[in-house]
Inverse folding.
């Protein structure tokens, strides 16, 4: 059984995604949940309190993805993490408009986002280093090659969904995953290629 | 918003490298690493006997754990000491009862199990 607080947060995220944080009123959130504004005020003092809780949950979810790093050495471990990134960004795409809306202005949320993004980038670089050490990826042919690749992967993970929206295309988990794996594919060693074709490819083109 | 724990980027990088190398460095342990469990297994079948004796002007409480099938295999552990012999006896009693708890019932040894030779 859901508790009301959780239901309010979920409805808020849905409305924030559709309308942006600023244009959502408490009345709308209450209607979406199916409770009175008075009841809503009992759970959250004001909209700032809701926004704060939404962000708190958002960062917690994001950190949960980080914690999945290298649970197993196989390529499927990264695949599972990509799937989690997809679910996270598909569920919370309001963050992006919020982030750029207040550009130039640094809020605590901005700082937290930036920290998380730095972490994400470090994790991606470190993942590629691991795959090179394991022999799944070819050794660097030129300096900084995999740093650039990590940045490209990062961009794909973050901006794949907004890109699809801009081009009025639908996006699903498989196309998202393919978008990321296509970047890595050219760098696979024969061993990595073999593992990829056995474990990942059948999921992407079934 | 309450301040959250923050990790330095350099520290996080080092952490990730540590996780990476874990895969290459960590190896399966040997069965002999569990030797200590095997070595101490006999302690599960021991009777507990309290022993009070004078030591440095006090009454020291020792517990002797003797194997029920071969009482000559035993270990002795000093538990506590007390200036008053009655209190020492009381403490010894409590500690023995605590240590002797066993699902099978309190294990004990008899003089027969010592298997003395009278010739």
């Amino acid at each position: 059984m859901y508790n009301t607080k959780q239901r309010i947060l979920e409805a808020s995220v849905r409305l924030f995604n559709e309308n942006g944080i600023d244009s959502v009123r408490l009345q709308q959130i209450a209607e979406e949940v199916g409770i009175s504004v008075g009841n809503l005020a009992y759970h959250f003092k004001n909209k700032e309190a809701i926004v704060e809780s939404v962000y708190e949950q958002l960062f917690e979810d994001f950190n949960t993805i980080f914690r999945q790093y290298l649970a197993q050495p196989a390529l499927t471990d990264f695949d599972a993490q990509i799937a989690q990134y997809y679910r996270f960004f598909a569920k919370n795409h309001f963050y992006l408009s919020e982030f750029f809306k207040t550009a130039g202005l640094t809020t605590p949320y901005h700082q937290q986002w930036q920290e998380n993004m730095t972490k994400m980038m470090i994790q991606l670089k470190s993942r590629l280093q691991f795959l090179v050490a394991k022999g799944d990826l070819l050794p660097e042919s030129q300096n900084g090659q995999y740093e650039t690749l990590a940045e490209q992967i990062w961009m794909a993970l973050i901006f794949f969904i907004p890109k699809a929206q801009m081009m009025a295309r639908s996006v699903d988990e498989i196309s998202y995953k393919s978008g990321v794996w296509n970047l890595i594919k050219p760098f696979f060693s024969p061993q990595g290629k073999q593992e990829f074709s056995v474990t990942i490819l059948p999921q992407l083109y079934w | 918003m309450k301040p959250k724990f923050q990790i330095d980027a350099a520290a996080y990088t080092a952490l990730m490298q540590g996780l990476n190398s874990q895969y290459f460095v960590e190896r399966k342990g040997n069965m002999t690493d569990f030797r200590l469990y095997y070595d101490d297994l006999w302690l599960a079948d021991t009777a507990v006997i309290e022993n009070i004796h004078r030591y440095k002007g006090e009454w020291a409480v020792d517990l002797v754990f003797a194997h029920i099938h071969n009482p000559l295999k035993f270990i002795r552990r000093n538990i506590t000491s007390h200036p008053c012999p009655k209190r020492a006896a009381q403490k010894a009693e409590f500690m023995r009862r605590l240590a002797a708890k066993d699902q099978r019932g309190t294990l004990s040894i008899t003089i027969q199990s010592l298997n003395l030779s009278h010739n």
